[in-house]
Amino acid sequence: MPRKTSLFLVQFLLLVLVLSCDSKLVFDQYQSLPNQWNKDEIISFKIKAPDTTNNYNLFVNIRNNKDYKYNNLFLITALEYPNGKTFIDTLEYKMAAPDGTLLGEGFTDVKENKLWYKGHKDAFRFKEEGVYTFSVQQAMRKYGEVSGIDNLQGITEVGFRVENK
């Protein structure tokens, strides 16, 4: 291999390595969906508390594609502590601009949205040692209708992320 080519290859690999490092990352996991999310499907993640002294940021990560046709997303979330105590929230996130352009990161029709869950206003601390369970399900409804959307189209993956503050 010519010296110039090998030097380029080494530089490229170093760049990929540097860009892939994420010093804040504590936990990051996804679960795939078949391009739709049934209203009864609860997605859960288990995480062992990293420690009980530091503060963390918690995120819900959503990957969606052009089949997602709403400007917002309603989620029902639950965080179960090791002692069984559970905190349940109904959250709303903006997913599209007023002109219908999907928000999020990505160059193709697949967008990734890193949505705040805990830590953005008040610091989040894992107060108990042990395993926490984060659960999420979609709670979307069409305007003026009481019953939920059975199968929400366009959601391809749901994730949960924990970062050092």
TrEMBL record:
Lineage top rank: taxon: Bacteria
PROSITE patterns: PROKAR_LIPOPROTEIN
NCBIfam families given in the database record: GldH_lipo
Protein name, as recorded: Protein involved in gliding motility GldH
Organism: Winogradskyella wandonensis
